[in-house]
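Discussion board: Methods & Data

I've been asked by a reviewer to show the raw model output for two of the constructs in my manuscript, not just the figures. I'm not sure how much to include, so I'm pasting the format here to get opinions. Each protein appears as its amino acid sequence followed by a line of C-alpha cells. Is this the kind of thing reviewers expect to see in a supplement, or should I convert it first? Here is construct A:
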Amino acid sequence: MAYNTKYILNYCNRHGKGLRIELQLWDYVGEAFILVNEDQYLLDQDGAYLSTNIDGNYDPQRDKNAIVGGPNPFTLTYKNDIGEKGGAIRATNADMQFYEDILFNIDDLATSDETQIRAVFYMDDQIEWIGFVTPDFFNVKIEENPLITLTASDRIGILKDVEYSVASDITQNVRIIDIVSNILKQTGLSLDINIVCGMYCDQFELFSGDEEFESFEYNNPFYDSWVNEYRFVTNIETMETLNCYDILQAISNQFNCLVTQYKGAWWIINKYDLEQGKGIRFNYNSAGEYQSIERISFREEYFNLIDSGSERTIIPAGAKNTYVLDNGPEMIYPLNASLNSDTVLISDIRYWWGRFSSSSINTFDIPSEYNSNGSIKESYENEVKELLINEGVITTLANDSTNFTPVPSTIPGTSYILESNKFKVVTMDKRKSSFKLNVKGTGKPLTALMIGMFMEIEKSGEPGVKYHFSLVNEISSDGKSFSGNNVFVRVDNINSASNIPVYPFGFENKYNSLNIAVDQDWNIEMHIAAGQMQTYDISTANFFFRIYPNAAYKKNDYNQDLTEVHNILKSVSVTFLNDNQTPKGTVFQSRLTGQFTKPTDERNVMFGDYQTVGQNGFFYKYREDSLSIMYNHAGQMLRTWFTPYDSERNPLLIHSLRQLTYSYGRAHDELKIGFDMDRIDPFAHYAVRCFSDRYIQVNPEDDYLQEKNSRYITTTIGKYLNSKRFVFVEGKIDYLRSHFEGVLAQIRTNEVERQEFIYSYFEQGDIS
C-alpha cells in the first residue's frame, strides 16, 4: 500500500516557473465502481456496496484527475514556536484553494483519518513541501461554482498530544538521532533528516580525516551522542512519558538548533552555523541511518521592492541568557522495584530472574487474615499484582530454647526464588556511597521476608575477581533481638547449600493477634566506604537482590501450629543519597556587562554533560547515574566540547549559551516586511541591495509632514537596512505571486562583554 495521486493541479507563478499540487490518497488505485450481478448491487456482510477499480492497480496516466485552482492555489506558512529568531521549531502549514466540480468535491474528500490525504507541492518539478490535509478544515461555500479551501500541515503541532514511546531497555542508551527520528515519524511523514550542527566533542569516536574533511568533522552530535530514553519517563511504574513536542524542542535547544521542513525533508540546523552562512550537512534517512555528508553554504538573497506598511523594530540586547538543565527523575533500584508483572508467573517479572520451580505467584489477592497454621484464611483484592511468596523455611527449636531472635537471620544460599538485575553502586567521589533501602510487605506476625542485598566488588590490582558482601542486621549481645546495627559482611560463597546471612524483615505482632495480617514498611539508611586498611575498589561495586523463602521459628509456645508461611513482598528499592541535598538541576547563564535589563527566554533542556564544578555560583554535586548525562558509543561520559568558532574546551551547554548570547548580545533589527522574490529560501541570508522607494511621512491624522522650508519630509526603509543581513524567522509564502510576507531578524554573531555562571538549583526560585 502507498500514497498515489488522485488529484493534480499544474500551474505557473508570475515568472512562468512551473508549480504543481498533488493530492494523494492512501491505498488509492483508481476510480472505484460498484459491482453488480444481474442488475443487483453486490453487498458485503455489513451491507456496504462491494466496489473495485478496473484492474486493481494504480495507473498514473489513467487515475490522475486534473482539477482547477482558485485565486490562491497554494500558500505556505512557517510558524516559529516563540516568534523570534531564537526559536527551536518552525512548524509549517499550507492553505490551498480549488474549484469544486462533479469529480472533485468536499464529499469525495470527506475522511476522519488525519493522514488519509497527503498534499505534495512541487516547484520546478522538485518537491518543495509535503503535509497532510486536515479533515477538520474542509471549507466550501454553498454557491454556483464553489471554491473549496483545504488546510494541510506537517503535523508537528500534534506532537504536543503524543506521549513519547520508549523503545529501549532502561539499561541501554540510544543515539539522539534515533529519538528525533522516532518523534518525527509520529507526524506520519517519513522524510529524510538533514542535520547541520558544528558542535564537536573530544570523547566522540575518532575517524580519519581526508582532503575534504578534518577528522572531527565526520562526527555529528545527534548521531554520536547517546542518552537514556527513560529520561522522558515521568512515572516509572505506569511508564507515562513526556510529550514528543517538548522533547524535540528541548533537544533542539541543547544544540542551539531549529527544526523545520523544507524541500520534502526535515532540517535540523544550528542557528549559529546558519548565521555564519555555512556548515556540514549530514543526511540520514527517516530511520536515522546515515546516508551522506557534504559542505553547504546558505546563499544570500537580495530584495528591494518592499511593501508599504512594513515595520522595523529594534529588539534590545539580551541582558541575561539562561539554559536550565533538569537532571530528571532520580533512578530507583533495582529495576522494577515493585516486581510488576502482567502474568501470575514470577518468571515474567521484568528485570528479575525467577526460578521456574517456584510455587510463588503474582496475585491481586492480598492476605488480611491467616489460620493458625499459616494458611491464608481471608484476603482482599488489590489494584495491582503483588508477589506472594509461598515457600517457607520453618526452623523448629527445642522447647526449652530461650535464646533466639524473633525470626531467623540465615537461610540456605541456594534456596532463593528471585534475583534482580545488578546495578552500579552510585558514588559522589568514587570513594563512598550513601543510600536508603525501603522494603514494603504484608505478612503473618513473627514470620519474615528473607532478602539478600549483596554487594559484588573487586579489589584493586585484582581485576575480574569478584568478592561478595551481604547486608545483615547484627544480633544483640543477649542473642534475643536484632541490634539495628546494619553492616555488610563478607560471604565466601553466596551459592552455598548451607545457611548464609541475609536480612530478615520480620512482621511485628502489631494487633496482638498472630492471625491478623500486618502491612509493614522498613527503611534502612546506610553509608559505606572502603576501610583504610582495605583494598576494595568501590568504583567497581554492584548491588543486587535475592528473594528467599519466608522464614520463621517454631516451638511449643511460639508459632506452635505453624506449618506454612505465605507473605507478600510489595517492593524492595534502593535510593542513592547525596552528602548534601541533591539539586534538581544546573543553570548555565550569561549576563552582559553594562546596563541592560531585558532577558531572553529560558531554554529548558533534558541532556548535558556530567557537571562536577560550578562557576561564579554555588554548585552541589548530583548523582553520577543521572538520566540527563550524555555518553559516547562506548559508554564514556561526554565532557569537553568545541566548535569551529570556539576552540576552548567547555561543556556543551556553555557553547550553546555563548552562541545564544552572541546572537542576542547587541540590539538587533526585526523586520515585519513584505516583498517579491522568485523563490523564498527559509535558510538564506536576506539583504537590501538598493534603496527602496521614498515615501512622504504623515502624522496619525494623515497630514503630510513638512520641514521649516515647507519641503515634505520623506523616508526610505532601505537606509536602515543597507549593509545588514537578516535571517528568516517566520512568514507566509504565496507561490503564485512569488511574494513573501513575514518576519526577518538581523544577524548578530560577534562576541560581547559578559560574565558566565554555572550553579545548582533546587527549585525554580533559585534561578536568578
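Construct B, same format:
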Amino acid sequence: MIKFSKLAVSAAVCLVLTGCFEVEDKSHDEVAAALEEQNAAIQDQKTPITVFGSIVDAATDEVITDATVRLKIGGQWQGAIAVSGEFSIDNLPANTDIVVLVQSPSGAFLDRAFYGKTETVAAGQEAHQAIGKLRVSEGVEKSYAILDTENSEAVEGLKFSYSTSSSFSPNYNYGSLNNYKTESTFDSETGLYRITLPKDLPFVLTAPGDIDGDDIVDYSPENNSYWRYDSIYLQSDDALNLETLYLNESLAYQAIEFRIKMIDSLGNAFENLEIFAHDQYLGRVDVSFDAETQEHVFNYQSSSGVELLMPSFTTDEDVIFQSGRINLNWSSTRLLSVHSNGFRNNLSGTVEVVDGVHSVILQPYETSTPSSDYNRIVSSVIDENQNFSLKQFFELPVALLDNSVALSRENILSVTKGNASASDIVPLGTTKIEYLSEALTTSTTLTHNDTFLAVVPEQALPSGRYQYRVTELVNRESENRYVPNFTKLFDVPATGLVFDINDVKLDNNNGSVNGAVIVTQNTAGETAPAPYSWYGSTSLYLPTSIESLDFLEFRLVSTVNNNTVRFYDNRIRIIDSQYNNANKVHLVSLATNEDVQVVSGQGINVRTKTSLEDGLVYTYSSGGVSSYENQPGYTNTATYQYTYRVRGEDTAHEGTITLPVL
C-alpha cells in the first residue's frame, strides 16, 4: 500500500489547479517575468467542469441524505461538502485526476473512495460530467479465531485488510495509488482478530501468510480454498460468515535433519566426507557423521535456500571422486525442494519431510583417470558480504599460477580532447570518448581439498562495474595447465543516495540554453554555430539517486510552447517495483561543431549538447514534449504531476513540478 505525504517543491513549481508559474530559480531571473505574464492566459484557457452524481445505499439503491463528500484534486485535499442524496460540484479543473471520498458524519455507513478523472474540455465549452451512483454500505463488526492446527492456539501477527475503493472513470487504473484500506486489530486477551466489514458491497479480505516480511510463508490455511497468492483469501460471503480458521505452520521454520548417505558402486558407505554450506566458506556448517547409520547429517532450519558442497576426494586406493552439490529450498507448497548435481543419481524434485527428518542416498562420480585436463566449475558466486569477493567450487582439485586470476574496474569513461595535449594522436577539433579499465590487486586462497577458490579484493570497491577473469589454472590430478575461460561482470551499487525531485531536468540537447550557444568554440578554436533549429524533442534527465527509489512516475499535464498552452494526459512510469526503465547516459559538454569519435563496440551512451553538468545521469522520455528552449520572451515549459517512493518506506511523495526546457 502506498501512503501519501505532501512534499514542498521548490524551484519552478506550478499547481495544475491554479495554472500559475512560480519561478524561484535565481539563475533564470530573466525568464520569471515572461512566465508570470502567461498566468492570466493560462487561466483563460483552462475551462472548468462540473461533476454530478448521487450517493445511494448499496442494499436498497435509495439515496442517502446524511453524507459528506471530500475531493482530492491534483494531490490537494478540499474541504468536506455536506450533501443530501444528489450532489453537483462545479469549477473543477478539466483533464485532472480526482478522488471522491464519501463519508457519514453519523457513522451510518463506511467510508468509501472513488477514483477517476475529469473529462477533457475544449476552451470556452460549458462542461458537465456524470460520475453516476456512488454506492456505500453499513458496516458489520466481525471477529475471527485464527488457530494453529497443531495446538489450537491463536496465531498472532497476521494483518487482515480489504478495500472497497472503486473507479467512476472507464479503464482508470488506480490500484497503485489506492490509499483506502481497512485493517484488522488483534485482541491479545481474547485471542481474536476484529475488523469492520461492508455488509452489502463485494470485497476480498486478505492476510499475507508471510508474517515477518522475509518473503517466506509462515502459515497457510488448512482449507486450501481460502489460499491464493501466498495469502489467506476470503471472498465477501466467506469473510462475513467465517468464525474460526485453522492454519498450518510452514515447514520452512521447522528444524529438520537432512541425512546423506554417500556410497560407491559396490554400496559401501563413505565415512566422514567434508561437506559444507555455500554461505559458510571457511568450514563445515553443523555437518556431522552418524557412524551407526553411516549418514552425513545436516541440521537445517532456515527461511531461505542453502547449497551443500562436497569437495573432490581421493580414497586410499587412489580412486578420485569429483565434487558434487546439493541444493535445498522450500517450495511454495511447503514441501522441501531437493536438487543435486555431480552425482550418478542426481536428485530433482520436492519431498515431504516426515517427523523432521529426510534421508537421501547419493553416489559420487569416480574419475580415476581424468579424460582431459579441463576441470569443470561446479558453482561460482560473488560474495557481497566479503567485499564482492569471487568464490568458485571446482569439480577436481586445482593449483594457481601467478596470473591465474585478475580483477579490473570496467567502463571508466575517458574523454580526450584534441587540444588537451600535443603528445596524443587526437587531432584538433576532435574529441575521443572511450571506456578504459583499471587492474586491481587481490588475495587468493584455496581450501577444501584445493577445490574451493576465494578471490578477495585488497581494497574497498567504490560503486561501478567490475570484472573477474580466471585465465589459467593447473589440474592437480593431471598436473597440466588448462584455460577455463571464465569471466564474471558485476556491479557494485552506490550507497547513501538521497533523491531530490528538483534535480530532475528537461533538455532538448541542442547545444544552447536561454538562446545562447553553450560551448562557443571547438577544440580547434573554430566558432560554434547557433543550432540549426531551436526546436527539438526533449528528454527527462534524472540523477543517479533514483536508484534509491522503488516507484517513480510522472504524468505530463501541460506544456507552454512559445507562450501557447496545451494540455496532455501522458503517464510516464520510470520505476516500478524492481525495474528501472531509464537509461544511463554520460554527459560531455562539447561544441556543436566538434567531431566526436566514440569508440565502437563498447556500448557507450553519450550526449554532448545538453546544458547540464558533465557526469553520469539517467534519461527517459519526456512524454512526447517537442519544444523550443526556454528563453526571454518565449516561455517553453512542461508541467508534470509526480509520484515517487523511497525503497523501504511505506509513504509515497506526490506533487507537481514545472520544468523549463533547457
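Answer (T.O., handling editor elsewhere):
This is acceptable in a supplement if you add a one-line summary per construct. For B, something like: Confidence is low (pLDDT under 50) at residues 1-45, 280-284.
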